[in-house]
């Protein structure tokens, strides 16, 4: 393609020219800190969640650290209009995540407020979720959870302001008796997934598990 010749795809870390379907080169890929957590066993993400709400299982693809390649990958997805990064991360996840006998009934992702969705042009979790749902043959629902308030990015808030936000999410339809996998990008304080988890738990006899792209180290 002429565009590929004029504007070749480059590694987001070292700027080497790489295949159009890749995000980083092989050398930089080796620098990514994958967690190697087991979904159905105890791990740091599950321990963090259990301090906030009763969680069934939990998994994180990699560690999120300041000034790291992982942080750069997440920012490419969220703020650099590289929606296809979600599919790449989903493919990396399927190579490392085995549900075994704990396969969820439904996948849901953290929603954006309609105003934020319009500003960004896409929800960074949708393609990630859809790719996983297709691979594992699990239904997904992008409309089950509603974000009730428009707010600035979590990364720009201080911890006190995050904790003060009340009822930021609601469940839009009746749901009960489901094993629900809640998907988010980065687990930092856990306030976001905790708020949604409690809404799902209180909606009916549901169980909630967590899948995040990265966990704050």
Task: Summarize this structure briefly.
By secondary structure, this protein is an alpha/beta fold. The protein has helices at 2-6, 26-29, 44-50, 69-79, 85-94, 114-120, 126-136, 159-164, 191-203, and strands at residues 58-64, 106-109, 145-147, 169-171, 179-187, 207-216. It has nine helices and six strands.
CATH topology of the largest domain: Rossmann fold
Shape: globular
Q: What topology, given as strand order, has the largest sheet?
A: 1-6-5-2
Strand content: 15-25%
H and E order: HHHEHHEHHEHEEHE
Q: In DSSP terms, counting alpha (H) and pi (I) runs of 4 or more, how many helices?
A: 9
Please characterize this protein's 3D structure.
It is a single chain. With 217 residues, the chain is of the alpha/beta class. It folds into two domains: 1-31, no CATH class; 33-216, 3-Layer(aba) Sandwich (Rossmann fold), CATH 3.40.50. The protein contains nine helices and six strands, in the order αααβααβααβαββαβ. The strands form two sheets. The protein has a four-stranded parallel beta sheet, sandwiched between helices. α5 packs parallel to α7 (126-136). The longest helix has 13 residues, at 191-203.
Write the layout of secondary structure elements.
Layout: H1 2-6, H2 26-29, H3 44-50, E1 58-64, H4 69-79, H5 85-94, E2 106-109, H6 114-120, H7 126-136, E3 145-147, H8 159-164, E4 169-171, E5 179-187, H9 191-203, E6 207-216
Parallel strand pairs: 1-6, 2-5, 5-6
Antiparallel strand pairs: 3-4
């Amino acid at each position: 393609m002429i565009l590929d010749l004029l504007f070749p795809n480059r590694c987001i870390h070292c700027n080497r020219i790489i295949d159009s379907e890749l995000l980083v080169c092989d050398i930089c890929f080796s620098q990514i800190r994958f967690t190697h957590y087991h979904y159905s066993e105890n791990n740091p993400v599950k321990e963090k969640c259990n301090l906030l709400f009763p969680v069934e299982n939990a998994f994180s693809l990699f560690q999120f650290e300041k000034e790291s390649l992982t942080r750069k990958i997440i920012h490419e997805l969220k703020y650099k209009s590289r929606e296809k990064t979600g599919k790449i991360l989903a493919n990396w996840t399927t190579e490392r995540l085995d549900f075994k006998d704990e396969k969820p009934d439904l996948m849901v992702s953290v929603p954006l407020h309609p105003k934020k969705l319009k500003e960004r042009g896409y929800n960074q979790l949708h393609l990630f979720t859809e790719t996983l749902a297709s691979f594992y043959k699990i239904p997904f629902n992008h409309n089950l959870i509603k974000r009730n308030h428009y707010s600035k990015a979590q990364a720009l808030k201080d911890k006190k302001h995050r904790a003060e936000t009340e009822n930021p999410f609601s469940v839009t339809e009746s749901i009960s008796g489901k094993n629900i996998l809640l998907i988010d990008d980065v687990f930092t304080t856990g306030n976001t997934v905790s708020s949604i988890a409690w809404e799902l738990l209180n909606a009916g006899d549901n169980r909630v598990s967590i899948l995040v792209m990265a966990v704050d180290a």
